[in-house]
Amino acid sequence: MADPADKKALLIALKRHLEAEISRTQAKLDICDSSQDRIHLSDCRDNLRALERTQDPERSILVLETEEQEFYLDRLSGTRRYLDLVAKVPYPLSGSAVIEGREYRLSRHSQWHESVCPGAQFDGSTRRDERWTSRSIVRSKI
Predict the structure, then answer these.
(1) How does 10-26 read in b/e, with b if 16+ C-beta sit within 10 Å?
(2) The whole model's pTM is what?
(3) Average pLDDT for residues 37-63, to the nearest whole number?
C-alpha cells in the first residue's frame, strides 16, 4: 500500500500512463478514424492537462485498498484485494495501470471517494444465479 509520500510518484506515473494512452489512441486514429477514439483521445488529453496543473498531489489523488469477497450459498469462496487509484480529473478513467510493480484500478474521483471510510462494507449483487453473492470492504484509504 502506498503511503502519502508516494502520491507525488503516483501522480507522475499516472501522467506517464495517460501519455502512453494518448500515443496508443493517436496511433489507432492514424490507421482508422473512429469517433469513439477521437472522444477518448480528447478525454485523455483533458485529464492529462488537469493532472499537469495539479499543485498538491495529496489533494488530487486517493488510493483505496478494497477487498472483494465472493460467496456461494453464504460461504466464502474467494477473496481478492485491489488498489484503486482515484484522481480528480474532468473525465472518467478506466482500466488499470501497473505502477512500480503494483496494479492499480483507475477511476475518476467522486463524492463517494471523499466520504467512504476504511471498514465500510458494501453488499454486491448476485452473480451467475442467486446462490452467488459478493461483498466489498474498504480496507484502507490514503
Answers:
(1) bbebbbebbeebbeebe
(2) 0.84
(3) 94
Phi and psi at 80, nearest 5°, equal -135, 145
Grid coordinates given for 43: 478525454
DSSP annotation string for 10-74: HHHHHHHHHHHHHHHHHHHHHHS--HHHHHHHHHHHHHHHHHHT-S-HHHHEEEEEEEEEEEETT
- Tell me how far apart the alpha carbons of residues 28 and 15 are, in angstroms, rounded to a whole number: 20
| Cell output for 139 | 480496507
Residues 6+ apart with CB under 8 A from 35: none
- pLDDT at 125 exceeding the cut of 80: no
3-state secondary structure of 5: helix
CA–CA separation, 142 vs 123, rounded Å?
Answer: 23
DSSP string, 106-130: EEE--HHHHH--TT-EEE---BTTT
CA distances (Å), origin 98, targets 16, 56, 83: 11, 22, 11
